[in-house]
Amino acid sequence: MIKSRICDLLAIEYPVFQGGMAWVADASLASAVSNAGGLGLISSVNAGTEAVREEIRKCKALTDKPFGVNIMLQAPNAPEIAQMVIDEGVKILTTGAGSPAPYMEAWNAAGIKVIPVIASVALALKMQALGAAAVVAEGAESGGHVGETHTMALIPQVVDALDIPVIAAGGIADGRGAAAAFILGAEGIQVGTRFLVATECTVHQNYKDKVLKATDISTTVTGKTLGHPVRSLKTPFSKTFARMEADPNVKPEEILSFGGGSLRKAVKEGDSLGSYMAGECAGLVKKEESAKSIVEDLILGAESILSRAASRLTQAL
Ligand code: TUI
Q: Is 90 exceeded by the pLDDT of residue 309?
């Protein structure tokens, strides 16, 4: 059975994190992943701080296993959320889209294990120095807000630089991707896109259908000119967004106003003018199934590949 320092650190059975996807990652999905032996995460991006508190309480009722909260640091209510998670006794946090430095002291003092999501070696080192328990190193294959370096190159460089455990994210959707991440030195994996179609994931059915229909070339990155590159499925929304970015007559404020609320529209309403954030591995996601079945497929798939890897390669040579 695949085990790592992450399992001991967080008291979880399998080193599998569910991505803390904005608007998506609620108590239903997080509790299902935690009940399956992985680490479920609730997103701090929801209908306000009280709605997130509600999800945390629901999750506590749905599972007695460890779960965490992902804090989106660019959100205006980040300081409020940072205090609320302490008040609610949350034990594990991941953070994204910014530096958690202003909150680290308070979180560490509260005994919270903080696992920042980073996309570079420099930030990973900064997080280790600030007292992070581990980092999620997220390659540019990921859905949503992305960095520049891809998983295959990012993971070994972050692993070499740090003493704390590294969890790999970006492009992992099955046992093959999981095995590759472990070979690169990761001690855990984080998976977002495949959990979008979990039975317990409450996104609009249109969102699930778009992921299930995706191919290898279905995603694109927009927002680079605004300093917020975001990977999403190619849709009429992403095409208009890209056209606006390329047009020198369109002001950044107009583009931002066009994009505002677009993720919520996709997740909650399945709106054609929504932003369907998903990773490059969407083309690997073929069926809706329970979170338990996804966690088991990732772990058992990786185990099976890793146990046969050496003999397969010897035969091939
Ligand atoms: O955070 C993510 N991915 C996200 S957040 C998100 S919500 C959203 N909604 C609408 C429009 C745009 C986004 C969707 N996807 N991934 C984790 C991640 N964090 N990747 C890279 C980083 C990161 C970036 C900068 C971490 C730290 C950082 O620090 C900069 C600094 O100030 O030190």
A: no
- Bridge partners (DSSP) of residue 114 are 93
CA dist 284 → 191, 212, 213, 214, 290 (Å): 12, 8, 10, 8, 16
Whole-prediction pTM:
0.97
- In the prediction, which pLDDT does 55 show? 98
Whose C-alpha lies nearest to ligand 1, atom 25? Answer: 98
Ligand 1 in reach of 180 Cβ (< 6 A): no
Strand pairing category for 92-96 and 166-169: unpaired
Q: Are 281 and 155 in contact (CB under 8 A)?
A: no
pLDDT band at 207; cut points 50, 70, 90: very high
Residues 156-161: what's their mean pLDDT? 98
233 lines ligand 1 (CB under 6 A): no
Cβ–ligand 1 contact at 132 (below 6 Å): no
pLDDT of residue 312: 78
Give yes or no for residue 123 CB within 6 A of ligand 1. Answer: yes
pLDDT band at 69 (very low <50, low <70, confident <90, very high): very high
Distance between Cα 270 and ligand 1 center (Å):
23
Q: pLDDT tens, 281-297?
A: 999 999 999 999 999 99
Using alpha carbons, list the distances in angstroms from residue 227 to 146, 247, 251: 10, 16, 14
Residue 216 near residue 307 (C-beta atoms within 8 A): no
Q: Between vectors from CA 218 to CA 215 and to CA 220, what angle results, nearest 5°? A: 155
